[in-house]
Structures are given as C-alpha cells and as structure tokens.
Design a protein that fits this description.
Elements: H1 4-13, H2 17-37, H3 39-61, H4 67-107
Helix pairs in contact: 2-3, 2-4, 3-4
Length: 108
C-alpha cells in the first residue's frame, strides 16, 4: 500500500509543472499549519517568542558603547523573527497556491 507521500508523488508526476508547483506549495502550507498546531510547534513558537522578548529586553539595558553585545542581541532577535516569518510565509504561500488551483479548476 502506498503512503500518503508516495501517493502525492504519483499525483505530482502526472501534472504540468505549474500545477505541480502549486500542489507542492499547498502541501507545504498544510504541513506548516499542522506543525504549528502540534505540541512541538506550539513549544517552538513559544521559545522563539521568548527569545525575541529576552533579546529585546537585554538590548534595552545594554550600554550604547557595547557594539558587539548589541549586535549579538540583535542577531538573536532577528533569527527568531526569521524563523517565525518563514513558517508564516509557508502558510500564506499555501493559501495563495490553493486559491490559484481553485481558479484553474473553475477555469477548465
């Protein structure tokens, strides 16, 4: 019996490249959404948000002449923000791709 991943790969191989890309984006968006709903996803988001808050708090207390410390704290916050934004982008891309696929279906 085929696994869902194998079934998806078979389906993707029969589609044109544009539709294949859209289907893959929808799948990634769905996986990102499921991940964020999981205990691990919620924990990771909490850790990232806490990392941003701690870095910002420490940054606010750091003397302006401590350039290296300021840079390190900014990098900590930015890394956490980028992780969150990548997950958001996956979900938004998936939603956009889903809408594009629906338009293609209605156009046929």
């Amino acid at each position: 019996m085929d696994t869902p991943d194998e079934e998806l790969q078979v389906l993707l191989s029969t589609l044109d490249p544009t539709t294949r890309t859209l289907v893959a984006e929808v799948d990634l968006g769905d996986q990102a959404r499921e991940f964020l709903r999981s205990d691990l996803g919620r924990h990771l988001v909490g850790c990232l948000q806490q990392e941003i808050e701690v870095a910002q708090s420490q940054l606010n207390k750091t003397a302006s002449w401590r350039r290296r410390k300021i840079q390190d704290l900014q990098n900590r916050g930015w890394r956490a923000q980028f992780m969150l934004s990548w997950l958001r982008e996956l979900i938004l891309s998936g939603k956009a791709a889903d809408g594009a696929l629906k338009e293609v279906d209605h156009g046929e």
